[in-house]
Amino acid sequence: MLYSDKVMDHFMNPRNVGEIEDASATGTVGNAKCGDIMKVYLKIENDRIIDAKFKTFGCGSAIATSSMATEMIVGKTIDEALTLTNKAVAEALDGLPPIKMHCSLLAEQAVKAALKEYYENNGGIPDAKRVFFDVLQEDEHSV
Ligand code: FES
Fold first, then answer.
1. Does residue 66 have its Cβ closer than 6 Å to ligand 1?
2. Per-residue pLDDT tens over the stretch 3-41
3. 3.90.1010.10, 3.10.20.600, 3.40.50.620, 1.10.260.40: which CATH number matches 5-129?
4. Which of 98, 94, 119, 19 is nearest to 133 (CA)?
5. Would you place residue 1 in the very low, low, confident or very high pLDDT band (cuts 50, 70, 90)?
6. What is the pLDDT of residues 72-98, one digit of tens each?
7. Domain map of the chain by residue range?
8. pLDDT for residue 136 is more than 50
9. Is a pLDDT exceeding 60 seen at residue 141?
10. Does 34 participate in catalysis according to the annotation?
């Protein structure tokens, strides 16, 4: 299995590892089949993500995609972060082997789970935004 230099870099030197003690929201997701678990912490101010951290107990691709996904959303507004997709994360890493695409979906789901919690703690999810959370129902291994 061939991994891109970027995947190897984010696996060997992951960015944003850790936790945020006073996080605005967290999202924890797991993959029932491989057993991998990912938790994302977000610090949000004025609807903008000012910090993101993660802890991943999982494969190298799960670590690399968590690292890249957190890098991609820091500085973004919530609306911008909602459009994050696992494909965009994989592309930013110069691709993943097809059998590893589900790992990138876990990263997208962890970010979306945290954003969902943020909305739920701040007045609820607006109807127009609900579609962005459909991904939380997807089976990671169907991708
Ligand atoms: S093998 Fe489970 S997330 Fe990668």
1. no
2. 999 999 999 999 999 999 999 999 999 988 899 999 999
3. 3.90.1010.10
4. 119
5. low
6. 999 999 999 999 999 999 999 999 999
7. 5-129
8. yes
9. no
10. yes
How many angstroms separate the alpha carbon of residue 3 from the centre of ligand 1?
14
Residue 63 Cβ < 6 Å to ligand 1: no
Annotated catalytic residue 59: no
Show the CA angle centred on residue 1, arms to residues 92 and 6, nearest 5°: 25
pLDDT of residue 17: 98
> Which of 61, 63, 101, 104 is the best mutation target for the ligand 1 pocket, counting ligand atoms within 8 Å of the beta carbon and taking the most?
61
Here the tokens at position 109 are 């789901």
> Exposed, middle or buried, 42 (CB in 10 Å: 0-12/13-18/19+)?
buried
Q: Which two tokens stand for residue 134?
A: 């459909």
Judge contact between 106 and 65, C-beta under 8 A.
yes
What is residue 92's three-state secondary structure? helix
